[in-house]
Amino acid sequence: MADSLSSENADSPHLSGNAGFKKLATLSIAALGVVFGDIGTSPLYAIRECFHGDYSIPVSHDNVLGVLSLLFWALILIVTLKYLTFIMRADNDGEGGILALTALIIRQSRENRRERWLLVAIGLFGAALLYGDGMITPAISVLSAVEGLQIIAPAFGSLVIPVTVVILAGLFFMQHHGTAKVGSFFGPVIMLWFAVIAGLGAVEIFRYPEILIAVNPWHGLRFLLSNHMQGFLVLGAVFLSVTGAEALYADMGHFGKKPIRLTWLLFVLPALLLNYFGQGALLLVSPEESHHPFYALVPSWGLIPMVILSTTATIIASQALITGVFSLTQQAIQLGYFPRLSIRHTSAHHIGQIYVPAANWSLMFSTIALVAGFGSSSKLAAAYGVAVTATMLISTVLFYYVARDRWKWNPLAVNLLVSFFFVIDLGFFGASASKLLHGAWFPLVIGLVIFTLFHTWSQGKSILLKQLRDRTLTVEEFIESLALQQPQRVAGQAAYMTANPDAVPVALLHNMRHNKMLHSEVALLHFSTERVPRVPNSKKVEVVKCGDGIYKIVARYGFMESPSVRQVFSLAHHKGFHFRIETTSFFLSRERIVPGLKSKMSTWRKKLYALMVRNSISATGYYDLPSGQVIEIGMQVQI
Is 68 in contact with 222 (CB distance < 8 Å)? Predict the structure, then answer.
């Protein structure tokens, strides 16, 4: 399989060949709505938290310049240099994100199995942390926008929580419709958002141009030296300005590197800097506005339209995080770290647009509970950031091994580069982690819970497969046994799902033992998830004629694809496999898990695995089997 990791030319399938300016512009506008929604709405609360949050500092000339300098260089070093310049080079066949990066580590052959396991584990923990981020981002984004009602009229303060809850509930209830119909609406709205916030900031900068000297890094360094521990803690609020950086990498496969990089450099970054520096200029003149400097930029006549635009922009930003959790869940299922869940495709034209009901409702209840529990975006900001900083640290570590072992970069250059990024990430992580008692524990607990589920499912599945392997025969042994003692063969076609392509499924042996018969044509159907995002149709299905009417079918899918028996039968037809899906009987095994055997897995985790097995959806729905033709054979298995 071709390695596209270090090739900058293999930017994206969207931009291959002679892609014109029109296509690039269309992709860039679409990327605005999906990729930059989170980082683009950070001006609503990032500056405010530096001067009005739990660890705020006084609004003074030097402090304002220092905070803006730190914020400016955070955007340059973390987003522009680290992610857009270096991390985005690490694509897994065009796809990005921490699970795609983890898949690269899995694909890389490593002599030290303990090191490989550790890297995969921290990658999975980084992915688990994104679930906590997916809960907090909609809550803080929408709540910070709706708080503009208090600016319009203090009497509206009592409406902030109810309105936020209604908006969030409506957002989650609409998820089953998918984003295909409103996707084209996202880009123009976010474009308007960036244009408006850039204009508001530019007006204030024009009134007080001295604020531009904050680009000098000395102001940021002096701020940290002068304010000591309090200055360090403010880094946690400064980090709020770059919390959407991981999304740039995760959404690379949908839009390609070039549209994301161009949109950031030519439009998003200038707009954000203009607004941040505009807020800083305003605070130099009116320090009393530190309770909400973003809305203080807006003329009184424009407050109501701005609250509406802000709320719309934050809904779009939340949508991007929600769909990101859906994609992450699908990848975890395909990679074998999560039980099967119902996954619905919401668009016939865009393969990445899916809806996962279980993830959706879990996010909805968690997000609404966060809004009700914390009560304000300022208090939520204390919980925000630690999950993202931890994920960024993990991305840096994984990037180091990819650059060193896969790309064979100069060891000294890799060490210097990664150490530079690691120190920056560690500083922001330490500042964010200082808020553990103020809510930062929440995303860490969520990440730990999700990681436990990941690890429990993977280990339990491995033990279960070993148990089943001891109860069955290899395909070769089974064919030999048929030659020695031929069972009653009945006309018809049957397909048995098997977890091991080289072993006969226990369901087939049980059926023969109890019913004393075997269909004239039998397919042993195995689905394999490859460590690549997608597998081309030409390589998706392998057909092996084993003899005596037995076929072995191996279907290979990428971890961003949904498997389908109907598609497999269609592709296999061209390779001499002529089963008709409408007349084929499908046999599945249904295991009842009972804790009992001695193993490295603790009893409580065995019970957790058994619970996950009982609540996973049937293979019928997951593999798109015709439900009226499925026969399940139950068995009890000790683990």
Answer: no
